[in-house]
Amino acid sequence: MPEQKRDHSGLTDTFASRRYFAKFEAITNHLGRVAAVMQADGTLNKGEVEVLTRYVRSIAYTFRALSMKYLLVGRDTGQFFGSLAMDTHESGFPVFNELLVMANDAQQADRHLTNTPLVDAFKDRMVSQIIGEQAIPTKLQFALSQRLYYEELRQGKLFWAQNDPVAQWLSGAQPRRRYMVHWAVYDSQVNLPTIYLMEVEDTGREALPRDQQRWPEVQAHLMGQALGGLKLLTIAKGFDESFDDLHPKRLRRFHVGPMYSNAYTKQSGPLHDVLAEAHAPAGQDWALAWTEETLESERVIEERAGWFGKVEREVFALDPFSGRGVETGATRMERAIILPERPFQVLSEKNPPGFASVRKFVVSPGGRVLSYN
Questions:
Q1: Which of 55, 103, 169, 353 has the most CB atoms in a 10 Å sphere around its CB?
Q2: Over 249-283, what HEC string results?
């Protein structure tokens, strides 16, 4: 535990905190454009892009809410109030506990807002204090920031510690329907958002989302298996064997992060040197990793079930190169990194080992995204 705490720190400086949130606002904006590029080159289909964009947007809403909560950090507000705890080593994202506290606050948002003056009332009182007392209304600013925080929570659509499975119909009808089931978690071990997409065929009598018995069981099973340390093969085979009339055809997992920045994280290795030498201006000193794991069904076999029955079981294709499929538990794994132009130029010049196979998405301040393999 002490070692873990050394990797966590609080953003206690007002300007450092605001720059941190502004950085992530820009990053999440870029992620939507990166997904569009991946759709254009066939890496993702339209439905997958829509789902991923929805989760990226929810991540952005979460950062916006936290930015309101910690807007006055480092200022004398007259209240004992902590600072955002972030993982400086593993991820560059807020620590898992921040999302747990936020979820608890969301349950009490209505009560807080009922007992708090409206935004316009706060503004009128601040103007009166500035003019009448010629003082900076720090305490009022803090109270207003907390109201804005709870307003963000009440609006919902944020990225929570657990984001329960949703089933979207893709094609087919009884006796064989096809769904996209997606869910997401904030991995407590590495403090990173992780998104799962699974294409599944349903041969049950009742449509999966309307099945009052199977659907709650499916949701509980998938959330119980949403652990970054589990291989996709383990998750898919466990699901396949637990539900005889549900057949996972493809499972994808997306790891959003880590985020690297000389100003906020303690990265080591090539990226440390790249960011240090780039001397990028404020807002462009960062790089975001993006890892995609994919597991696909190769064929179907039949197994005996009971005395006379048979059930379908999936045989999954593993990465054939150098036996890596056994190690990764996936059909393929693709790594990418998203970074601004200045760090990319340094990365290209240094060409460090291990980055040749990493796809690079280069973003410009104007929003343009270029892809390099």
A1: 55
A2: EEEEEEEEEEEECCCCCCCCCHHHHHHHHHCCCCC
Q: What is the average per-residue pLDDT within 198-219?
A: 95
Total number of domains constituting the chain:
2
How many C-beta atoms surround the C-beta of residue 242 within 10 A?
Answer: 12
pLDDT digits (tens, 9 = 90+) for 83-105: 889 998 878 999 999 999 999 99
Please name which of 284, 342, 361, 333 lies closest in space to residue 19, comparing C-alpha atoms.
284
Q: Is 47 exposed, middle or buried (0-12, 13-18, 19+ CB in 10 A)?
A: middle
Distance between CA atoms of residues 160 and 361, nearest Å:
27
**What are phi and psi for residue 31, nearest 5 degrees?**
-60, -35
What gap in Å lies between CA 263 and CA 265, rounded to an integer? 6
Domain match, 99 and 235 both = no
> How far apart are alpha carbons 134 and 240 in whole angstroms?
68
- Are 226 and 78 in a shared domain? no
Between strands 359-363 and 332-340, the pairing is parallel
Tell which of 155, 182, 208 closes a domain.
Answer: 155
Segments forming the whole domain that contains residue 34: 2-155
**343 CB contacts (<8 Å, ≥6 apart)?**
274, 275, 278, 280, 284, 285, 286, 287
* Residue 337 DSSP SS3: strand
Considering the domain architecture, whether residues 229 and 287 belong to the same structural domain is answered as yes
Instruction: Give per-residue pLDDT as tens, 179-193.
Output: 999 999 999 999 999
- Check residue 184 and give its pLDDT: 97
E strand intervals along the chain: 8-11, 84-87, 162-173, 176-187, 192-202, 246-260, 287-305, 309-317, 332-340, 359-363, 369-372
The answer, as to whether pTM is greater than 0.85, is yes
Pairing of strands 8-11, 246-260: unpaired
Both 222 and 338 in one domain: the answer is: yes
- Report whether 13 contacts 72 (CB < 8 A): no
* Residues 184, 324 within the same domain: yes
166 and 46 co-located in one domain: no
Q: Same domain, yes or no, for 172 and 81?
A: no
